[in-house]
Amino acid sequence: MTVLTEDDLEFNFGSALDAIIFDDNDLHSPSTIKRVDFIAEFNDRFVFLEIKDPDRPGAANPEAFKTKLLSGNLIPDLAGKYRDSIWFRTLSGKATKPVHYIVLLSMASLEPALLLAKQDELKRSLPITHTDWSAPCAQACVVLNLEQYKKQFGADSVRRLSAGG
Fold first, then answer.
1. CATH class of the structural domain 3-163
2. What is the pLDDT of residues 25-48, one digit of tens each?
């Protein structure tokens, strides 16, 4: 069972073949590429997971994060992380399965409708398809809150460390 931690969130990738912390300077130095936080390999796909957790205890400025999200300034950063990560994996010969890009925005005050709107913006910003491409750059691209993530991947797939148990 692979368990990875990002700040106050612990992820259980028990059903994955492998899972790594991709946003690791030792793996990429020297490099300025933007990186998703985790990559998990399953039988039929890779999952690129980017985590934004302004609800974590002690978060510096959750309102600044919300402003960045609402203004549209966060989406280009999220798109860049995916593009650089897929580029790196492709050139490393490790893009051998379809990729699902998942952005976890752990901010309880965000409405699901806003998450859907940001998901649409992200898909346009990547972009997912292009007339010159023979296949989409991602099979799926979703923006989820913590509750939605647990519904999709299981109640035990992520837990907040500061909540205990």
1. alpha beta
2. 888 777 789 999 999 999 999 999
